[in-house]
UniProtKB/TrEMBL annotation:
GO molecular function, one term: cellulose 1,4-beta-cellobiosidase activity
UniProt-listed CDD domains: GH7_CBH_EG
A single BP term in Gene Ontology: cellulose catabolic process
Assigned protein family: Belongs to the glycosyl hydrolase 7 (cellulase C) family.
This protein's name: Glucanase
Reactions accelerated catalytically: Hydrolysis of (1->4)-beta-D-glucosidic linkages in cellulose and cellotetraose, releasing cellobiose from the non-reducing ends of the chains
Matches recorded under InterPro entries: ConA-like_dom_sf, Glyco_hydro_7, Glyco_hydro_7_sf
Keywords: Carbohydrate metabolism, Cellulose degradation, Glycosidase, Hydrolase, Polysaccharide degradation, Signal
Organism: Coniochaeta pulveracea
Signal peptide (UniProt feature, chain positions): 1-17
EC number from the UniProt entry: 3.2.1.-
Amino acid sequence: MLVRSLAALTFASLVLGQQVGTNTAEKHPSMPIQVCTKSGSCTKESTSVVLDSNWRWAHVTSGYTNCYTGNEWNATACPDGKTCAKNCAIDGADYAKTYGITTPSSGALKLQFVTKNDNGANVGSRVYLMASDTKYRMFNLLNKEFTFDVDVSKLPCGLNGAVYFSEMDEDGGMSKYSTNRAGAKYGTGYCDSQCPTDIKFINGEANVEGWGGSANDQNSGSGKYGSCCAEMDIWEANLDAAAYTPHPCKVNGPTRCEGADCGNGDDRYSGVCDKDGCDFNSFRMGDQSFYGTQMTVDTSKPFTIVTQFITTDGTDNGKLKQINRFYVQNGKTIPNSVVQIDGIDPVNHIDDNFCAQQKSVFGDNNYFKTIGGMTQMGNQLKKMVLVLSVWDDHAVAMNWLDSNYPTDGDASTPGIARGRCDSAAGDPKTVEAAHPDASVIYSNIKLGALNSTFKAT
């Protein structure tokens, strides 16, 4: 059971709004990518990144009074969702000083975990790739490969450096909702397969109704509504563990949910999205010496991650059949680890058969199949937005990624052990105090025809 807590991705007195303020000019940090052809020829695209609007300062349009402070809404400015959207504006971001988001070199992005600033400290961040100043860069991943370099050498247990795709709207929902005046330029319209209820504005309205502050996060809370869409996790990782996971949904594109459709608690397998997904974590799949410091993939040094989306007919419109994974380090191509669990075929990729066997052996609900499996995931890979983030986990301390989960489970039981980390290491109070200088660097992003973005050795 994979769980992502978005509650950890917060900043004191900052919140998503829908109008646009003018106190700080919005300037997107440059992060060019390359698009490659079968011949291996690659062309540079002048892309950039934008900060998610959930991090931004929101204030009343007539002044500087916060619309949201700590984990509470301003009752005067935000008596209901529609009124709040009219009353509140979000501003531009000082990416480096306030959020610790920098570009150390062309095509590279560094995300600092904790950044002290004039307002206190920012914890975590999430950004999206932009094609222009007002539109996200859209991806069709079918019959393609997606490649990037990563440095997780300063990302310890309990943290997650994530690279993934979400089925968001190109303009951040601006054209759909007249109350959303900010759009993609200010990072609006987020959704994912966890149907997060801590998103403060959904469909151009504030998530005020039913809002309650988090019991263990003074800067976050949750409302009546969630924001659902399909998600393809290319990379969720730290120094000691890594996973890649498709998460299909019944719905297409950003969808506001409520009640059972959000899939929370006992309704987990009634929701519109597959929250568990079908994960491939080398440690969990039996090879405990493949990924980590001084292992086959040595996480103390940078390396390249290659993910291929194979279709049944070899075309960009075919049905998704298989997701392959390779690594490249020190000039050497490293195939993904092979499954070493009794009852699961010794494969090193994700397909429907792998997912069915894994769910059966681990005793998990195969909601992935119920939702539509690889075919449905493929249908939703045609219109994706690239997300890059770093976060800690206020829900289950990242144990689902890098430790035993459930924490009271027997590590010898297949599927329980996901990494070598101590289950207490990811407690947000612990990791934020012990590792404020943690960071991740993403660079050299490429998209292209199969076998065009890296040189096999």
